[in-house]
C-alpha cells in the first residue's frame, strides 16, 4: 500500500476514534475520576482530612457526605463521588487545576489527554509486538475494532479511568526498553507503579533479562516519587493512604466487572452454596471479606505463571513481547481486583499474535479472546439474567487465553 494512502487511513481512523470517544464520554460525569478530582480539590482548599474518608467496606458506596455536599454545591448532587485510593502526590499535583475548574471541565481535560494516550498506545503496542511484520494500517484497523467491541475499553472511558494513562506508561516503558533506551524505560515504569502499584510486578521482565540497571532505575524512580510525595504532602496523609489501601484490600467485590481468579472462585462457591441467590437478582454487586483460600490459590498461580513465563522465554531472541503480554494478563488475573478496564493493556498487544502464529490458530484464538469480553456477548448474558459467575469466568478465560497465546508466540521466535 502506498505510504500516503496508509497515512490517510490511519489518520481517518484516529480522528473517527477520537470523535466517537468524545461524543460518547465528553461532558459526562466519570465516577472513578471523581475521586481524583475531589481529593485534589480538598487538598487545594486545605481540607486534607476529607481526602481518605471512605466507608468501612470501601466499595459500593460514596466516599463521604462531605464530598457529596460539595458535589451538590457544584451542581452535581445527583452524582456519586467515590473514595480516593491513590498516593497523596497526585492530589497535590492536580490541586491547582481542581480548585479552579468545574468537575466536568476537569473531566473533559483529562479525557482529551487520555484520548491522546489511547491513540499513542495503539502505535506503541505495534512497535513492541510486530514493528516490521505488521502493516501500520492493518494494525490500527484491528486495534480499533477490538477497542470498539470490547467492554474493557468502554468501561475505561466511561470512568475516564487513570488506568488508560498507566497503560500508556507501561507500553512506553517496554517500547523504549526494546529499543535499548533502558533509562527511559525504567523511569516510565516507575511512574506507572507510583500511580498504581501493580505495574511494579512487570519489572520482573527486567530481572528475567538480568538487566539490573533498568530495574534499578524503575525502583529509584518509584522511591524518588515516594520521597517527593512525603516532602510535599507530609507523613499523616501517607498514613491515611496506607490505611485506605488496607481497607480496600480487606474486601473483595463480586461483580461481572471483576475478572480476578479470587473473585471467580468466591462467586462459584457462592453459587454452589446458594450464598448470593440466583441469577442477577441481588448478585450483580456484592462486597465480601477477602477469602484467604482464594487469595492463596491466586498467589500460587501467579508464582507458577512467572516461572512458566521465564522458562518459556529464556532462550527467545525477542522475549519482550511474549513476556509483557503474558505477565500483564497473569498479573491482572491473579490480582486482588481484576477490574474489567485493566484488560485494555493486554488487548492492545493481542493483535501481535496474527504475525507470530499461523493465521489458522491466531485468528480464531484472537476472536474468542475478544468475544469473551465483548459488549454483545456480555450484554446478551446480562439480558438473559445469567449469573455474574459466567461473566466473571469469561473475563478470566480471556486473560488465560492471552497468557497462553503470548507463550505460544515464543516457539516461532527462537
Features:
414 residues; mainly alpha; 2 strands
Describe the overall structure.
This protein has a domain at 250-414. It has helices at 3-25, 31-44, 65-73, 88-98, 103-129, 136-149, 151-159, 163-178, 182-195, 204-208, 212-233, 235-249, 261-273, 292-313, 320-334, 344-349, 359-371, 375-383, 388-408, and strands spanning 251-254, 286-289. The chain has 414 residues and is mainly α. The chain contains 19 helices and two strands. The model is unreliable at 277-281 (pLDDT under 50). The two termini are 30 Å apart.
Strand content: under 5%
Strand ordering within the main sheet: 1-2
Number of helices: 19
Largest sheet: 2 strands, antiparallel
The SSE string, one letter per element, is HHHHHHHHHHHHEHEHHHHHH
Give the overall shape. globular
Mean pLDDT: 91
Task: Give the CA-CA distance, first to last residue.
Answer: 30 Å
Rg, nearest Å:
21 Å
Oligomer: single chain
| Poorly predicted parts | 277-281
Helix/sheet category: mainly alpha
How many DSSP-defined strands? 2
Topology readout:
Layout (H helix, E strand, L loop, with lengths): L2 H23 L5 H14 L20 H9 L14 H11 L4 H27 L6 H14 L1 H9 L3 H16 L3 H14 L8 H5 L3 H22 L1 H15 L1 E4 L6 H13 L12 E4 L2 H22 L6 H15 L9 H6 L9 H13 L3 H9 L4 H21 L6
Antiparallel strand pairs: 1-2
Helix pairs in contact: 1-5, 1-6, 2-4, 4-11, 5-8, 8-9, 9-11, 11-12, 13-14, 13-19, 14-15, 15-19, 17-19
Amino acid at each position: 500500500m502506498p505510504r500516503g494512502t496508509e497515512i490517510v487511513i490511519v489518520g481517518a481512523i484516529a480522528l473517527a476514534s477520537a470523535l466517537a470517544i468524545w461524543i460518547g464520554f465528553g461532558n459526562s460525569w466519570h465516577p472513578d475520576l471523581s475521586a481524583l478530582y475531589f481529593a485534589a480539590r480538598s487538598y487545594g482548599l486545605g481540607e486534607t482530612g476529607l481526602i481518605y474518608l471512605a466507608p468501612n467496606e470501601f466499595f459500593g458506596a460514596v466516599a463521604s457526605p462531605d464530598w457529596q455536599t460539595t458535589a451538590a454545591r457544584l451542581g452535581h448532587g445527583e452524582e456519586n463521588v467515590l473514595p480516593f485510593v491513590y498516593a497523596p502526590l497526585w492530589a497535590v499535583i492536580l490541586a491547582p487545576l481542581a480548585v479552579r475548574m468545574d468537575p466536568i471541565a476537569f473531566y473533559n481535560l483529562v479525557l482529551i489527554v487520555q484520548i491522546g494516550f489511547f491513540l499513542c498506545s495503539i502505535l506503541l503496542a505495534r512497535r513492541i509486538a510486530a514493528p516490521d511484520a505488521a502493516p501500520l494500517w492493518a494494525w490500527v484497523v484491528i486495534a480499533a475494532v477490538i477497542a470498539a467491541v470490547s467492554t474493557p475499553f468502554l468501561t475505561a472511558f466511561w470512568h475516564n479511568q487513570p488506568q488508560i494513562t498507566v497503560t500508556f506508561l507501561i507500553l512506553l516503558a517496554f517500547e523504549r526498553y526494546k529499543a535499548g533506551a533502558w533509562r527511559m524505560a525504567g523511569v516510565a515504569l516507575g511512574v506507572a507503579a507510583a500511580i498504581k502499584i501493580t505495574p511494579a510486578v512487570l519489572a520482573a521482565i527486567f530481572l528475567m533479562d538480568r538487566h539490573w540497571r533498568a530495574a534499578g532505575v524503575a525502583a529509584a524512580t518509584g522511591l524518588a516519587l515516594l520521597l517527593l510525595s512525603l516532602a510535599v504532602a507530609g507523613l499523616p496523609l501517607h498514613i491515611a493512604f496506607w490505611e485506605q489501601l488496607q481497607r480496600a484490600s480487606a474486601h473483595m467485590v463480586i461483580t461481572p466487572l471483576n475478572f480476578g481468579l479470587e473473585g471467580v472462585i468466591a462467586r462459584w462457591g457462592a453459587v454452589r452454596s446458594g450464598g448470593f441467590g440466583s441469577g442477577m437478582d441481588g448478585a450483580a454487586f456484592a462486597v465480601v471479606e477477602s477469602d484467604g483460600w482464594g487469595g492463596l490459590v491466586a498467589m500460587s498461580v501467579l508464582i507458577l505463571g512467572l516461572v512458566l513465563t521465564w522458562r518459556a522465554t529464556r532462550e527467545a531472541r525477542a522475549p519482550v513481547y511474549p513476556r509483557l503480554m503474558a505477565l500483564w494478563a497473569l498479573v491482572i488475573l491473579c490480582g486482588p481486583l481484576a477490574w474489567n478496564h485493566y484488560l485494555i493493556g493486554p488487548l492492545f498487544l493481542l493483535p501481535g499474535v496474527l504475525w507470530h502464529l499461523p493465521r489458522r490458530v491466531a485468528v480464531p484464538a484472537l476472536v474468542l479472546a475478544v468475544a469473551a469480553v465483548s459488549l454483545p456477548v456480555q450484554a446478551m448474558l446480562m439480558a438473559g439474567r445469567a449469573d455474574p459467575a459466567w461473566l466473571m469466568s469469561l473475563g478470566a478465560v480471556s486473560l488465560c487465553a492471552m497468557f497462553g497465546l503470548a507463550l505460544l508466540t515464543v516457539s516461532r521466535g527462537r
